[in-house]
Amino acid sequence: MRYEAPNSVEAAIDLLAATEGAYVLAGGTDLLVKLRAEMLEPELVVDIKRISGMKGITPEDGGWRIGAAVSGAEMGEHAGLTGDWPGVVEAVGLIGSTQVQGRATLAGNLCNASPAADSVPAMVAANATLRIVGPKGSRDVAVIDVPASPGKTTLGSGEFIASVFLPAKPDHGGDAYLRFIPRTEMDIAVVGCGVSLVLDGAGKVSAARVSLGAVGPKVMLVDAAAEALIGRAPKGDALEDLAAVCSAAATPIDDKRGTVDFRRHVAGVLARRATEIAATRAKGETA
Amino acid sequence: MSQIHVTTSINGDTTEFLCEAEDTLLDVLRDRLGMTGSKEGCGTGDCGACSVTVDGRLVCSCLMLGAEAEGREVTTIEGMATGDQLHPLQQKFIEMAALQCGICTPGILVAAKSLLEKNPDPTEEEVRYWLAGNLCRCTGYDKIIRAVMETAADLRRAS
């Protein structure tokens, strides 16, 4: 294995495109585990942390551009980002331990392509986009379009994610992410749910995005869940309808962490609770 | 394959080493630099026994390549005491018997020191969450948590 730490995006693309079996290293919290387990035997590891901008959180068009190598800990310490998108920041903060937070990244969580990745449903709910760079130039892609199947993404040869863009937080908007794990910390989601919504002057939902993780081969954006909320106050029957839609949309498997029936049920419960938190935040209150 | 030449700072001392691309920082510390205070428990970032700080950030040295340390500032458990003078956390762990076999202890001390530098007055809940990635199979954690809380209180009184 070779290790390279180029200092430009172009140099990184050249290295990745020229080498069969090249892998990108940002936080390394998944890559190094796979190296040790010999699940991967790369010819080349390209460390992108020396490239300008990869460690930056910068305002852009009212939103935030987050470099691909920004760690969860750095996101959690950023007041502006935490104020605008608390659900996304909390979701990334759920990944692993304090030590893992010191290195783990949004882009890495996405590219690891686990169906149970915590930050991914939150990014989907927030309508985050990615700047993907590669031999053919750069393209902006919605997060929902990147996971292909467990362990697989739609990124092409030589491509890597340079940054994640969280759009401007809408006025009277709020987001939240919840997951279920049988422990209190250091575990992998049995079900995860991200919600982002906007309230109108009457307190009714005018726009919503609801996403589910760990209940299918990849993250899902549940349009019917958004439809269950829009035009209604986020409480009572609207939340019951939302829960029923999310339970029905879930397509989980039975495994050691949860059964199909349990996961379906919890998908609805988490959608309801995350919506309540997002609505509280949309009103400008703390939740 | 030629080895990678790395210049870094470890516990304040400029240090140079040669490593293979696949060597983790933990491999380098233990096997190339003879700094065996950092332990390998799991090698997969689950147990925290290899905890160090890099540029002030708490990380697992088993989840980082040695080559990544170029130009960084690494601190390890070996840098915690000042000569024969133990760090207050080390002293308190001894006084309160917050260890049994000791394998997890270096990682827990490094992690706890990092917490108290960021938050001198943590709640018990905050200590427990901060140390959730440091596994101890002997103590049941109670003495460890109490030792960290007591040290924090001592340090606040002293400052």
UniProtKB/TrEMBL annotation, chain A:
UniProt key word Oxidoreductase: yes
Record keyword Flavoprotein present: yes
MF (Gene Ontology): FAD binding; oxidoreductase activity
SUPFAM superfamilies reported for this sequence: CO dehydrogenase flavoprotein C-terminal domain-like (SSF55447), FAD-binding/transporter-associated domain-like (SSF56176)
Boundaries of every FAD-binding PCMH-type domain copy: 1-171
Record-linked InterPro entries: CO_DH_flav_C, CO_DH_flav_C_dom_sf, Diverse_Substr_Oxidored, FAD-bd_PCMH, FAD-bd_PCMH-like_sf, FAD-bd_PCMH_sub1, FAD-bd_PCMH_sub2, Mopterin_DH_FAD-bd
Keyword annotations of the record: FAD, Flavoprotein, Oxidoreductase
Name this polypeptide is given: Carbon-monoxide dehydrogenase medium subunit
Organism: Roseovarius marisflavi
UniProtKB/TrEMBL annotation, chain B:
InterPro entries: 2Fe-2S-bd, 2Fe-2S-bd_dom_sf, 2Fe-2S_ferredoxin-like_sf, 2Fe-2S_ferredoxin-type, 2Fe2S_fd_BS, Beta-grasp_dom_sf, Diverse_Oxidoreductases
Keywords, in A-Z order: 2Fe-2S, Iron, Iron-sulfur, Metal-binding, Oxidoreductase
GO molecular function: 2 iron, 2 sulfur cluster binding; metal ion binding; oxidoreductase activity
2Fe-2S ferredoxin-type domain sequence ranges: 4-80
SUPFAM superfamilies tied to this protein: 2Fe-2S ferredoxin-like, CO dehydrogenase ISP C-domain like
The protein's name in its UniProt record: Carbon-monoxide dehydrogenase small subunit
